[in-house]
# Entry
Amino acid sequence: DQQVKQNSPSLSVQEGRISILNCDYTNSMFDYFLWYKKYPAEGPTFLISISSIKDKNEDGRFTVFLNKSAKHLSLHIVPSQPGDSAVYFCAASGSNTGKLIFGQGTTLQVKP
Amino acid sequence: EPEVTQTPSHQVTQMGQEVILRCVPISNHLYFYWYRQILGQKVEFLVSFYNNEISEKSEIFDDQFSVERPDGSNFTLKIRSTKLEDSAMYFCASILAGGLNTEAFFGQGTRLTVV
# Structure
């Protein structure tokens, strides 16, 4: 039962261009969505989040868009930098315990 | 910057042995979690802990697993009798008190290898 899905296992973009990572969810009870970045042998690092009452949240080069009717969110990175190369996980929360449900991750490679 | 710390970074154990994974959450956080990631798979929720008791657990968190906050700073995950399929990265996380719609901070993980 995959409540959070990232259908693209990998993405490759050129430095300076936009990276767009996508995430779909099925549970309409989710009300908070997060993106985490993960390097090998490290824990997930929080990037940006969005509450279900918003449709966009921006933090520097990172913007998250939420389309509740489509149950879809995306992370835009502009401009992409080689240091952005990592695995990106989408996560969702909706229970009172703060439990996160993660997607499978998308490996982003930014080429110099 | 405050961080979640986990020890050890790597634990190798024989099948059937007990292991204890340790975590020190961020000091003013009140909600604590364990997650795991089997190699090549997604990060999976194991258990949440609040006010000295389990608030939610997944199907993975069976009777072989237990959690404890013995001294107000450490948060431990015990696996009573390890199986080969318990081999994974285990991540501890904590959430700031005062709101659950806020980011969880993760530790760097413990790689558990069961042989």
